[in-house]
Amino acid sequence: MAERTPVLVVSDVEKSAEFCTEVLGLELVSGAPEWVFGLGEIRVRLVEAARADLELGQSVEAGTTMVRLEAANIGLLHERCQLHKVVVKKMQLRRTRWNTDEFTAEDPDGNRINFWSVSVT
What we know:
- A hairpin with a 4-residue loop joins strand 6 (94-95) and strand 7.
- The model has no long low-confidence stretch (mean pLDDT 89).
- By secondary structure, the chain is of the alpha/beta class.
- The chain is globular.
- 21% of the residues lie in helices and 34% in strands.
- The termini are far apart.
């Protein structure tokens, strides 16, 4: 089965691209028309809301999507997101009962990005 890249629907792909690189520290994997950002195994695709119907086959508003991404160095990523004040207040870095470390950040449109990593004990 082919692996799919998680999608964030955004209002302004260039503004969101800046968020991905400057705030999250991701690198541009491929640019227009298929904006994909990554770091290690992390991959996320940006789709402008105006093009969502064409690219995703359904109309989706910006700020209504959520993705879950595995992060290799979750502590460092959490610190970076805290510095930029994008961590959701009630979703700070925490250990779950499933033995993962997780936190959730929010992009400029209000999309949620849940980062997780297997806890090292």
